[in-house]
Design brief:
The protein is mostly beta strands. It is built from one helix and eleven strands, in the order H-E-E-E-E-E-E-E-E-E-E-E. Strands 1, 3, 4, 6, 7, 8, 9, 10 and 11 form a nine-stranded antiparallel β-sheet that branches. Strands 2-5 form a two-stranded antiparallel ribbon. The radius of gyration is 18 Å and the shape is elongated.
Length: about 150
């Protein structure tokens, strides 16, 4: 009678283990460009930029982030082509300020652990209220990396 529960428990442990560990060995690539944003030939204006720094120990991030003002007055964050971050489960992109991310300033799920990617800032988020962009693991509450955005 206990054997089916042991087998089921083992299967659950394997599934959860795979979900937790496999992202460390998988590289996901995003190849979005500026042209993928809703812009014309004039292009967006660079408002701020910054370099990614590592998050918690064992979580590496590098590359550049740029805050852009689009022609319609909206804003976007762009991770440049040189962006790389340690992959992990449940990674999301947030805005933050002065060393703290804001869970209400969600830009979306991380599109790739490597490469260029664009995140439109929703209209109900005041881009001027933030000076950082974060890659955050929601499952474990861990910062994988962040970039302090400095005015251009």
């Amino acid at each position: 009678m206990k054997k089916p529960f042991i087998i089921l428990g083992g299967i659950i442990v394997l599934i959860v283990g795979y979900w937790l560990i496999s992202p460390l060995f998988i590289v996901t690539v995003s190849n979005e460009t500026l042209a993928d944003l809703p812009v014309s030939a004039a292009g967006p204006a660079v408002v701020a930029h910054g370099a990614f720094v590592d998050g918690e120990p064992g979580h590496h991030a590098e590359g550049n982030a740029v805050l852009l003002r689009l022609e319609d007055g909206s804003f976007a964050v762009r991770f440049e082509d040189n962006f790389k971050v340690t992959n992990g489960p449940d990674l999301f992109v947030y805005l933050g300020k002065d060393g703290a991310y804001d869970k209400e300033a969600l830009l979306g799920g991380l599109k790739g652990s490597v490469g260029g990617q664009n995140y439109i800032i929703p209209a109900d988020i005041d881009a001027a209220a933030y000076n950082e962009v974060w890659v955050w693991c929601r499952a474990f509450g861990v910062k994988f990396g962040s970039a302090k955005l400095l005015s251009s």
